[in-house]
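LAB NOTEBOOK - FOLDING QUEUE
OPERATOR: T.R.
BATCH SIZE: 2
PURPOSE: Compare the predicted structure-token outputs for two unrelated chains run back to back under identical settings.
PRIORITY: normal
REVIEWER: second-year student, initials M.K.

ITEM 1
FIELD SEQUENCE / FIELD STRUCTURE:
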Amino acid sequence: MTNQDKTYNELLANRLREIMNILGMTVSGFAEFIGRSPSHIYGILQSKRTFSHALADHIGKKINTTGAKILNLNISISQNIAKVESVVSFKEEYTNVPEYFSDTKNDRSIDAFISEVLVGSSFLKTPRYLNEIEAFIESQYSKTYIGDQLSKALRYSVRKGVLLSEKRSIMLTNGNLGKRQVDVYWVS
């Protein structure tokens, strides 16, 4: 795979992520909606599988668009796809399966929030201190965590390989660096 192919596959993975976000579905919910396995969807999201024209056409039929529009990165995906009859009926049919919908899953699990929402944002492209991550989550998502919930979840994400971490000097409130070493987190 050339670098150009890899970059294009990453952009298509982001495109699929965007569609799933608009629909408000998790990987397992989206996989059920389109009739594919979650591992197939994860493979595309991790750029290990290609986002084929056939799959794009299949998804396009489910959300009343064409596969060509899905694969054309110059065309934005309409927010109205969430109102398509097939999406509405899927949400009604599976309303009692909270794992299928991102709004309920991220509210239930801090680990899911980190791996599916926070990692997907561009905020963690550069190493960030815990207090920066807390402030970002509170300002962007109106979420706060009690005690060391967030730091434990971030360390767990590092163990799972979702995030990277290293020790750096602590950033003091005045902007200077202190002597104590603390973790910073980012995605590769």
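ITEM 2
FIELD SEQUENCE / FIELD STRUCTURE:
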Amino acid sequence: MAPAPAPADQGPRPRLEAVASHPSEHEPNRADLRKDPSRVSGMFDQVAAGYDRTNTVLSLGNDRFWRAAMTRTVAPRRGQRILDLAAGTGVSSASLARSGADVVAADFSPGMIAEGQRRYGAGAPGGGIPNLSFVQADATALPFGDEEFDAVAISFGLRNVNDPKKALREMLRVTKPGGRLVIAEFSHPPSAVFGGLYRIYNGVVLPVVAKVVSSNADAYDYLNESIRDWPDQAGLSAWIREAGWTDVAHRNLSMGIVALHRATKRAR
């Protein structure tokens, strides 16, 4: 979360190491709106094994609908090379790879990458998915050359990046001219009535359910905070344009709980 503007980069990034004040691997790790990279990564490491099951329960099964909508919008085809950022355990990446496209699943959390490789890598039952590879990567400093990918997708992960505007520029850099960007992210329902009900669910119901089904319920407190602090559909669209993307558009899913944004890199 699979899902706030940060100051522009003012110099070398800090080393991504846990400091003494961070929880041990056996204590619940909770990120906050500062989105310290080691805390965010550690939080997702701790929930990796049960992450997809928890998401399905907490979203009332809507995560599958959102993933299918993302895959249709990316429209992957055999012969294309696609980057799936914030790929988590690789569920979205596997959906894209079933088209025959060459898919790179990238995530900042080594725990998520390890779980994805266990499920879909060469050692998985049946030999895994041969056209799906896994890479640990920071969305603000992608380890890829310029113009490598026909499309870049990110599902419920941009919200967790400490400098999302820089990440959008990096996505543009690695995309081929004429290539596509697709972002699925939690957003803000435009209906005041439905939005109020959604906030009640997130603030009252979800924390109770998370305590039952998640190995780190505190992580879902962060989820609520990050959604509240995230820009609405128009705000994220403006960020995408500012990064240099064209043909920016979005459509709401589940009455605006999620927004599916799409854009294109200008062709030469």
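REVIEWER COMMENT (ITEM 2): Confidence is low (pLDDT under 50) at residues 1-26.
FOLLOW-UP: none requested
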